[in-house]
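User: Reviewer 2 asked us to show a designed sequence for the structure in our supplementary figure. I'm pasting the structure tokens here. Could you produce the per-position amino acids so we can include them in the response letter?
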């Protein structure tokens, strides 16, 4: 647990567009899975205070599935300085303005400026958290990443237990090669309105009344594959036998299933060793 002293004064958003430089890891959670009829996402996919986001995203047939991902980003340069971000976009959703598009349903960042700016500029449901990166003592050249959500403010106190914990293992025999987002399927975000916290001057949870459409382009850098696995041990009551009675290998979880959804990504992801991109001003649409 750690604390930071914060003055209870409103943080002003840094207006878009932003040009940023970063290192990023893309954890791929789905390549095309379609949800079962009536299937809705669990509560852990949403911040507890985001009533509208949860309601809109869990309406009948709102979630359409498709490509899903978790992104872990270390912004080295931005209009507000360096900060970290963890976000999940589980797939595509129906929305009032387009047939369907992707949506970030939960995100953590390491500074209040990033919380306020992300919510105000792009409708991203960001919350404050502490990010800890440590070299693994068990796996050569691997990094352990843990994310601790803020639990109270003024002063800020972070949870003693992480909501996300991953082991990132480089594929050392493959070099990073030049790449751009044009090499990957296009992702277009359509973000619903966000609820404001009663203490938004302190916790940064400012509200938005409109939908926002965001489409990033012109991003490029160097990329290579990486391997990943979770660091959370399974619960004691988790079944360890398959239907044939054979003992299964123990799968360590990536998240606690409360502060962040416990999804099992593919064992390989994409590591952007460096990436430069422009985050444009989102298109604000009429409130409903």
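Assistant: Here is a per-position design you can include in the supplement:
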């Amino acid at each position: 647990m750690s604390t930071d002293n914060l003055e209870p004064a409103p943080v002003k958003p840094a207006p878009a567009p932003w040009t940023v430089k970063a290192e990023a890891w893309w954890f791929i959670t789905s390549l095309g899975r379609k949800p079962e009829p009536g299937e809705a996402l669990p509560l852990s996919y949403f911040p507890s205070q985001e009533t509208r986001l949860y309601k809109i995203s869990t309406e009948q047939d709102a979630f359409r599935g498709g490509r899903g991902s978790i992104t872990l980003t270390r912004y080295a340069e931005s209009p507000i300085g360096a900060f970290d971000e963890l976000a999940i976009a589980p797939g595509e959703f129906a929305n009032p303005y387009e047939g369907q598009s992707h949506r970030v349903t939960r995100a953590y960042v390491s500074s209040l400026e990033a919380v306020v700016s992300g919510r105000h500029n792009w409708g991203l449901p960001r919350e404050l958290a502490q990010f800890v990166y440590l070299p693994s003592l068990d796996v050569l050249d691997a990094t352990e990443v843990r994310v601790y959500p803020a639990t109270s403010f003024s002063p800020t106190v972070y949870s003693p237990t992480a909501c996300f914990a991953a082991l990132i293992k480089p594929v050392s025999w493959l070099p990073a090669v030049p790449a751009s987002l044009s090499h990957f399927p296009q992702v277009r975000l359509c973000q619903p309105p966000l609820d404001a916290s009663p203490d938004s001057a302190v916790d940064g949870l400012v509200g938005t009344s409109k939908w926002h459409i965001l489409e990033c382009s012109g991003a490029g850098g160097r990329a290579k594959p990486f391997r990943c696995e979770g660091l959370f041990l399974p619960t004691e009551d988790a079944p360890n036998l398959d239907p044939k009675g054979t003992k299964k290998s123990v799968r360590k979880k990536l998240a606690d299933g409360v502060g962040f959804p416990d999804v099992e990504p593919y064992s390989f992801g994409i590591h952007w060793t460096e990436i430069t991109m422009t985050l444009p001003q989102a298109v604000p649409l009429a409130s409903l």
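For the response letter, you might also mention the following. The first strand starts at residue 3 and ends at 4. Residues 112-122 form the longest helix (11 residues).
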